[in-house]
Every structure is written in C-alpha cells, then in structure tokens.
Amino acid sequence: xxxxxxxxxxxxxxxxxxxxxxxxxxxxxxxxxxxxxxxxxxxxxxxxxxxxxxxxxxxxxxxxxxxxxxxxxxxxxxxxxxxxxxxxxxxxxxxxxxxxxxxxxxxxxxxxxxxxxxxxxxxxxxxxxxxxxxxxxxxxxxxxxxxxxxxxxxxxxxxxxxxxxxxxxxxxxxxxxxxxxxxxxxxxxxxxxxxxxxxxxxxxxxxxxxxxxxxxxxxxxxxxxxxxxxxxxxxxxxxxxxxxxxxxxxxxxxxxxxxxxxxxxxxxxxxxxxxxxxxxxxxxxxxxxxxxxxxxxxxxxxxxxxxxxxxxxxxxxxxxxxxxxxxxxxxxxxxxxxxxxxxxxxxxxxxxxxxxxxxxxxxxxxxxxxxxxxxxxxxxxxxxxxxxxxxxxxx
Length: 395
Description:
Shape: elongated
Strand order of the largest sheet: 5-6-7-8-9-10
Strand content: 5-15%
Number of strands: 12
C-alpha cells in the first residue's frame, strides 16, 4: 500500500504532489467477513462522501491506483480542501497515524520518509472507513464543507431571502408543507422550499413536545422570529420552533446539510427529544449533522403529504396566506421530483462506477443501499472479533 502511494507521487508532476492524498480500504479487504459486495459499497461510500464535502461544481470520482482497488488517490484542489489548513485538521483528528521511521525495517523507514517528503505532510495515507464515518460529521464536516455558523449566513451565500419570499409567495420562491409526523421527528414538522443558487434550499421547522405554539393547524404562518418583534404580519397565527434541518444543493448537485436551533444558530446534533435515528448511523440514536442526513436522504428529497392547506384552523387573511404558502399537491410533487432528479443525476456519477458491476450493471441507482450509512454503521457498531482485530493490525 505504501509503495503504491509512493510510486504514484513519484510519477506525478512535482507541482501536484503537495495536493495529492490517499484513502485506503486495506483493513476491510483483509477482513474475511467483508465480502466483495461490501467492498464495492465502501468504494461508493468514499466517492459519495468526498463529493458531499465539496464546494466545487463537478463530481470527481477517486482514482484507484492499485490492482485490488483498495487504495485511492485524490487531489485536494478538486474538492476545495486546499484552502487553509484543512488536511492538517484531518490529520489531527486521525487516530491511526502510525509512523515507521523508528522501526528496524529499513524498507518501511525509507517508504515513510519518501511519502512524507514527496507529499509534504506527515500522513498522506488515511483509512477510508474512518474518513467516511468521521469527516461527514462535525467538526470536520463543517470545516471541509466551509459551512457558516448560522442559517442566516448560509442563506445569504445561496441568495435565499425567506422573509421576502414569505411576503410575496409563489411556488417557485416558497412552497410549504406541514404534517403531524415524519421519519425522524415525533412531533409536528413543517418544511419549506426555496430556489437557491445551485438548485433548492429546504428548511424544516421542528418542535419540542412542550412547545405551546407547535400546532401547525393553529399556527401555520411562522416562524414568529422571521421578522423583527412586532412586525410579523400574522403574529397570532405564527408558530415558534425549536430547531430544524437545512438541505441545500451543492454546486455538483449533491446535498449539503445544516442543523440549527430555534434561533438559526448552527448545532452539531439535534436534541433526542425532537429527532432521533433508530438505525444509529452515528453510533447512537442522535441525529448528527451531515452523516445522519446523508444516510436518511439517500435519494435526495423525501416525498411527503401536506396536511395544512385543507385543514388549517385560521380564517380571513391568514387563511389566504396559508393557501399561497402551502401549494396543491401536484405543484409540490413537481418541485420534489425536479430536486430528486438533480440529486440522483449527481449520485449516479459519484457511486455508479463502483456499484454498477457484474450482475448489477443495469440496476437502477435507487435500488442500491445508501453506502455512507452502511459503512459508518459497520465502522461504529460492528463487533471486533479476533479476525477483525488481526485484519486491523495487518496480521
């Protein structure tokens, strides 16, 4: 593995070497319990993960540089990771950073020196399974994707003005739906869609069980803090939320995610009382920004049925505003479909080259399991028996 990385660096242009890094799946390939299909899924997970952490406009598939396709090379510039000291943040978080310069084996010592000298960093090779399970969650997720500290700043970046859209609603600017339960929340949830710079900007509004203004039938026109105090046009029909999830299209067509509190501030994970993950993708039931969202939204947006437009308990001008904000089902379905197509087209480019093999060559991309969640759960939750430990230690 180290020789393959060294040779790849030697053959690269000297100006490119400082930006070349490597991801390895060799510990999984060594493990007899890991099947060929598992390895295919792991390769797809790596490709989806690095492209889901990119602010660049195109999908870049990692390049296998060994015969077994367990070692992959990437260029940091392809993902906008060359800015600042982002790779050093990855190195600092990496728990498997073995160096070989103190060993008796001269071959390993020389390889270690050559790799560090050629790449210009201490750890140019890291484990892909660790990266997929760790870099897709805070703090690395926020850093690598250059995410701001609030929804308001993200909205400014993407050209989204929720207050203006609320005051002048039409479906291409703002479209809402509310329902009693969703897949991750036990309370009411309201979602709204806006056009944004690279596609769509979706925002959910979620509630604590004790929230007195969470009944969307009675309070469908929030949030109350959308406007300065005293300036909301429908204060008596406005909900007050406790947090939410933001989904937005990246320049390459995949999706970025931000979890926020009721004041639009960025948070690392959603409160268990509001949302939870029964599959424990992050290692616990906690919904963690990035990773949990990627595993859940495997086809992009998730279809839903609005329950507010025809069932609100408001009247007069407030009822008219509800009808403008909460469109008919065919209108919302078209928006959902177009966003799903955009995401699936990008997903096809990222994971299709790894999943479409052998008997699965003609299989629809929707029919494959979501790979990031699969690999993250294996990494966090799989029991380490003796064979797995031996594989981890290259024995």
